[in-house]
Amino acid sequence: MNLFAEAFTVWGSPITWLEIAACVLAVWMVVCNWQVNPLAWPLAMASSAMYALLFAHSKLYGEATLQLVFIVVAVWGWWQWLRGHGAEGGPLVVHVLTVRQRWQAAIATLAAWPALALLLATATDSDVPWLDALPTVGSLAGQFLLGRKLVENWPVWIAVNVFSVGLFAIKGLWLTVALYALFAVMAAIGWRAWRQKLPAPQAASA
């Protein structure tokens, strides 16, 4: 079966079987993340591989490369959820960053944005390097926070998903537009679900 074959069209843009399969696995992955279920990570690997192909086909090279990085990070995240430890040496549990750590994460992410944008602008034929680079670096930050079971991953994903809706609309990936809009809503639900897993003092700061 040709995964790039057209399944149907939306507003004149073809929706491929590859995009449909990637969307289904990605939604299943987020549901598992809500539940802190390690199955989320192999699902992330499979959906990321599919999206790497889809984004490369659409000349979104930053997003395509990000999916390959996601596969590597998913291996790390899977290990963290199964074998990782918290700061005190106990099993890794849902927790939050300190205020200083939040600022450090934000500054590092924003500093990486122009660096990646300039790389895409000079090394590829991307027609949206700056728009492509921002959700790429934001997604890397979100994935790292998710792997360490940090509640802050969810507001990061909300911001990334909302921005990505506009980016994918520019590219005519309408099923993915709908998916990322759904992801933004699901991230808000995940944020609430993980906050409920925190002790009261941490929940107040999350």
Give keywords:
206 residues; mainly alpha; two-stranded antiparallel sheet; 2 strands
Describe, in plain words, how this protein is organized in 3D.
With 206 residues, the chain is mainly α. It has helices at 17-34, 40-57, 61-83, 99-123, 129-147, 153-170, 174-195, 200-205; strands at residues 6-10, 13-16. It has one domain. It is built from eight helices and two strands, in the order E-E-H-H-H-H-H-H-H-H. It has a two-stranded antiparallel sheet. The longest helix is centred in the middle third of the chain and has 25 residues, at 99-123. The protein is globular.
Task: Tell me briefly what this model is.
With 206 residues, this protein is mainly alpha-helical. It is 72% helix and 4% strand. The chain has helices spanning 17-34, 40-57, 61-83, 99-123, 129-147, 153-170, 174-195, 200-205; strands spanning 6-10, 13-16.
The biggest sheet amounts to: 2 strands, antiparallel
Which class best fits the helix and strand makeup?
Answer: mainly alpha
E-strand count: 2
Q: How many helical elements?
A: 8
The overall average pLDDT, rounded, is 89
Shape assignment: globular
Distance between the termini: 46 Å
Rg, alpha carbons:
17 Å
Determine the fraction of residues in helical runs and give it as a percent range.
over 70%
Record the strand order, biggest sheet: 1-2
Q: Could you state the order of secondary-structure elements as H and E?
A: EEHHHHHHHH
The number of domains:
1
Q: Could you name the ranges where pLDDT drops below 50 across 5 or more consecutive residues?
A: none
Beta-strand level of the residues, as a percent range?
under 5%
